[in-house]
Each structure stands twice: as C-alpha cells, then as structure tokens.
Sequence to fold (828 residues):
Amino acid sequence: MSTEVPFKISIPDTQLELLRKKLDLVTFPDELEDAGSRYGVPLADIKRLVARWKDGFDWRVEEAKLNEEMPQFTRDIEVSDGHGTLNVHYVHKRSEVDGAIPLLFVHGWPGSFIESRKILPLLTESSRDGDFPSFHVVALSLPGFGFSEAPKKSGFTPDYHAEVGHKLMLSLGYNEYVTQGGDWGYVITRKIAMKYGGTHSKAWHTNMSMGFPPLNPLSHPILFLQWMLTPYSEPEKAGFTRWKQFQKEENGYYILQCNKPQTVGYALADSPVGLLGWIYEGLVNWTDEYPWTDDEVLTWISIYLFSRAGPTASFRIYYEAQHSKDSGFISLTGGNPKIPMGVSRFPKDMVVAPMSWIKTTGNLVFAGDHTSVGTNKGGGHFAAYERPEALVEDLRNMFRRGGPAFGVTSKKGGYFDK
Amino acid sequence: MTDSDSLSERPFQISIPDSSIELLQKKLALATFPDELELESDEKRRMYGAPLGDIKRLVERWKTGFDWRKAEKKLNEDLSPMFVRGIEVEGFGVMDVHYVHRKSEREVDAKGRKAVPLLFVHGWPGSVIEVRKILPLLTNPEKEDELSFHVVAPSLPGFGFSEAPRKKGFNLTQYAEVFNKLMLSLGYNEYVTQGGDWGFYITRRMAQLYGHKHVKAWHTNYPGPGAIEPAFGAQPLHYLRHMVTPYTTREKTALERSKWFTTQGMGYNIQQSTQPQTLGYSLSDSPVGLLAWVYEKLVNWTDGYKWNDDEVLEWVSVYWFSRPGPAASLRIYYEVTQANQRVVPFREKPTIPMGWSRFPMELRSFPRTWTQNVGDLVFDSEHPSGGHFAAHEEAERLVDDLQKMFSTVL
Fold:
C-alpha cells in the first residue's frame, strides 16, 4: 500500500558546491560579430546569466520560497507492464471548499511542477459569494522530471505517464477529476481522457491547440463546410506562420531528443552552462516576450540541474513517443476522447491551430481565445506561468455554474454549500 | 588592411599550451554522468545514443592514461610538414588557414607521369587527422609505376588549427574560394580534389567555380543528398531508367542505411543547421559532452572499425583543443543551409570528370542512376567494406581508386 510522505526540496550542499566549481571553470564558445540571436541563444545573455549564477543567485532562497508556496509530497505508484514501482513527487493543495473540483496539472518539457506555482493560489481560492468554482490541485513531476524517479526500462511512453497521473489522483481519493495540460501535458492528459475518461477523468482542458484540417466531408460534414467557407482569421494565419517558422528553425532539439537523447544527455548532464543555454532558448522563443528575470530563469534551470534523475532522463519521453505506435508527439487519428474538452489559445505558442481544426480532435465545449490580444500581452507556450489569471479565468468559466462543464465531478461543482 | 607577414607561409607544429591541458583535466575531474536505462545489449543502448559504459571508460582513459603530448608529437610527425598562411576571402578579410603540404617523393614516376597536386578536404566531425594514413601512400607509393601525388590537406576554416570566420555568411562559395587560393598560392595552378562529408560539398562547389581552369577532376566517397531521385519532369530519361532498372541487393541494403540515417540519425544535423550557438555552449564547456557527441558518430558511421580508446581521444582532442573551439565547427551547417546550398540542383552540375568510391556503410547511398544529377561520373568503384570515414577506415582502397581514376582521366 503506497503511503504519502511529505517532501521539501533540499538540495545537498555537495551539489551546490559542484555547481560552483563547474561555473568557475566555465568555457564559453566564440560568437560571430553579427550573429544576433539567429544562430541560437546570444552569448551576452548566457554570460550575464552565468555571472548572476556565480554571484547573486541564491538557490536556498528560491528553494525556501518553492517549499513555502507549494505543499509537496512523494508516494510510490505501481506502473503496469513491468515498469515497476516509481516514487512520484507532486504538489497537492486543497481548497477550503470541500466539494472543490480535483484538478491534475500536467507539465511538459522544459517545464516542471513549478509551472503551477502561480495558478495554485488562484485555483484553490474560494468565493464565499459563489462567484466562481474552486479546485483541489495536484501537480506532479512526471517520471524522469523534477523530483520524481525516472523509469528504468525502455518503452515508457506517454501512455504510462498517463497511467501514473491517473493512479496518483485515485490514490489521493479523487475518484473523479479533471485535467489541465500543455506540451507533453497535452499529450498525457489527452491519453488520460481517452483511457480513463467518463469513469474517472470527467473533463480535460489544454492550452495547446492542435488539430488537423477537417478534410473529409464524410467524417465531419458540418466542420468541412465551415472550413471551406470561412477564411482563416488573422490570428489563425499568424499561427500558421509561427508553426512553419518553428518547424524550419527551432525543432532541432525535438528531433535530437527523439533520435539520440542519451548522446546529447552527456553534455547537458555535465555542463550547467550547456543546460542553461539549451533550456533558455525555449524560455525565450516560446513565450510572448515574457520578462524573465535572471533569477527566474536560473530557478527554472535548477529544477533540471538538481532533478532527482538528472536532466538526461527528461529527454527520453521524446524518444519513447517517437518509437511508439503514435510515431511522434501525438497521434490524432484513432478516435477522440468523449469527455468535455476545453482549449485556451495563446498567440505565441509554437502551434496555434485554427478553431475548425481543433474541433476535429474532441468534444469541444469551451474555447478561450487570447490570440487577438496585442503583442506582449497574449501569452505563449507556458500559459500557466505567463498568463495565470487568464488561464484560471478560462478554467473558472469552463466549470462555473451555468458553464459548459459545470458539476462534472460533484453536485456542488466546486462551490460552498448554500 | 592586409599584413604581408600574415599572407606568407609560416611553418606550423601543434603545440597546445599546458594551461589548456590543465583546464581539461580539471573539468574531467568534475565530470557528471547521466543515468542510463536498463537495456540488455550495447546495440539497444546505442539506439538511445552513445552507451554510458563506453563514455565512462573513455573519460577514465582521458584522465589517467591518454598522453596528449605523445599523441601531439606523433601527429606533428605523421602530418609533416604543416603550415599556416593568411588567405584573403572576399568580404571576410584575411584568415589564417592551417594545412598539411607534403610533396611527392618523386616528381615523375616510372611511367613518366608527373606527380599530381591533390587537395584533400575533410568534413565534420573529421579533421586533418583523416589524411594521416593516406598521406604516405599518396606521396610515396610502393611501386615505382604507381601514380603519386603532392598532397595539400587544410583544416577547414572554423576547424582544427585554422581561424574561424568572424562574420556570418561564410558558405560553400567562401570555402571553395579559400582552398582554390590556397592551391594557387602553393604554385598549383591545376589540381584535383578528394572529399567526403563537407569535403564533398566544398569540392563540388570548387568544381563548379574553378572546374577546367584549375580543378581538373574531382573524387568523392560521399555523393551527398544531391543525388536525388530522378523526377520525371526534370529528367525523363533518368526517371525511366530508374523505374526499369531493378536495384541490386547491395543497393537495397544501402537504401536501408540511408533510411536509417534520415529517420534516426539526423538530429545533430538539424540542430547544427538551425541553432548551432545553443548547442555550442555545451560542447565548449564539457569535454565529456563533446566526446559523446563525436564518439557516437565515430561508431555509428563506420563499418565496424575497431577504434582504440586513444584513437578516439586523439580525434576528439583535435576538436577540444582546436584554435576557434568546437562550437565554431558547427556553423558550416547553418551557413550552408541558410544559403540554400544543401540540395544540389541538377542544372549546376560540374562538367569536369567525377569519381565516386562506394563504401557499404556510408550514410547515404544511391543507385547509380540517381547520381547523374551530381556530376559527370567517369569513375565508379564499389568496395566490400568501409563507412563514412573512408580515408581513415580504408586507406589503401581509397588510394588505389585515386591512382586508378587520375591515371585515366588526366
């Protein structure tokens, strides 16, 4: 019987010491005079961040803040098909409202449980006047990420990540729950919806809008007609442009991690500066000019650097998904989840599918659209971190009294008793 | 502003400062390794990347047993004589280019033929080390009546002991310009070339720009993805031939290998072509990271070549101790991709004679019918063994081909 153990992040001094020693020996690459940011992360940015990392950034302060803001635990979860028992780390914060909606938040790469840090107080907030529903929040570290154990055997596809997330919710007594996820969180919560939807997962929300055009008039007759007749909006066209640019210039990390995660893993396990560069590229390119502070970036990187299994383990989800029957990030063929689906679209994500495309992928009952907001306001890939209020507002609107997914988990639907 | 001193040839010996060796050892002492999945065989481990056991063993050797000074001395001997000279490249100023230049032991052979000037161009993750084994065979053949060569083998700008370009845009045209100027500066108005990997692309560009006037013929062991499947519209005759000619078993195996490379082995290529600087931070800072990055290719791209650990470490050290640092070498991928020079278009086919030596474990291979887009193929040979680093793996076979080809076409 797996029991919950309270957890506080407490990185041993030896690891901080090793980091300091490596930073003292850091060797930087050269850079072309006129490179700008076209060749990758600019050298000036990395040098500045390293200088801060050596002198000024205080991990103990950040660690204490994380522990204070986010109640954390670990417990063993048994995984099928020979993957054995994995010790899983998670944040768990309950609302004051007894019948609050249990919500599982699933991060992606290069994210982590800390992506839930800003939405945590907002989601668990309760309204005595019944203005909005409240949630109990569970945010796990995916196996191989953060402070969860890593899988030991090959073949740990997103299907098994889904199993872990689902079993975690059951073990916490949440027989019925909803999910929120982006990046791999999208893939994993979609699988949860497919496999455990109806009986356990009651609704799913994502900030990653994927889909494919409703090309077949026979399978989606109304959508097909709508798609044929409605020209794409300006934000939708901008989404295509962004996606094309990403495919052309920015998906090297993706293909590399799908092909040879171990090979690139040696460099990123051994060089904190290398890891910083690798992840920082995504933090800048995939957000909507989010004003990262240096300490924020370094905290984010530190989760990877100090992770239980080391950063290399986090790449393997790409390899396993690529070599699974899905043959890649996600397979949108093979049927859709039936439970209610919500999507929030943010303009600077690397993929922003048109509404007509998204409608082919599930039972869409809610759509939050932030794509027409001006630049620097819309939000990007890390929605929960960049636009926490907007994302929470969308979730509240999806699950509120009178909303399209009200009461899916309990009669009180996240409100106090009247 | 050109400096006449820098434009003249200066003798060169590899001599890595003690401080660089000390820094390397300090970093190795702090090496942090990743975990690895529990897998039953090295073959399975290799699917995810370089196996942990191999890397740990190599790092241990690098720390304790590998003697760089000894290797350095041997390299200086084997690659002698070496030089550096400044070459002016249009738009990029004067750049120091490092090269091996060894003249033939005989000006004229037993058949009365003069020694042929040959430019050998390496690729990534190669270096001038790749000329080491073929150098004595080319300049001092065993038999008196075998064709001999004057060999010039430079470090590509951004690699080995050559300077790196300081501005963006240094693509195949510039590499071609540098090397043609190098040959001319050595008094070789007419010469031939041999190249694989980037060496193929560069020598093909040279054949386009300087063919007939300076480059008389070119040989490759890697005809690149320019060898594209003939499309009916562009080349109806080739297309028909391609449809009708059945592939041999060998050709089918080669296509399988190509498929493996394009679906499983291109990650590094795409990263280096799009965000080389991002990757550069890791490879500059972590010798272990660089070792794994290069070692994986040395194993996967060769035909069961029995690398010994010191050989690997020497190869990687040339990158680690390179003049511009390992990150600079990645940019050739970016520049050539940006300039749209990756796909080799049919219409710009060079018209000087071309030779192709086929080794079974080369990364890409194509039926003969496909290579008509690449060049004027007059020499074509197949070998039973060998992979991507032909000059290193199959020195004798390669030299044999070069002697045969250039005896006939020149």
Q: What stands out?
A: Chain A has 16 helices and nine strands. Chain A has one domain: 1-413. Chain A touches chain B through 63 residues (CB under 8 Å). The mean pLDDT of chain A is 93.
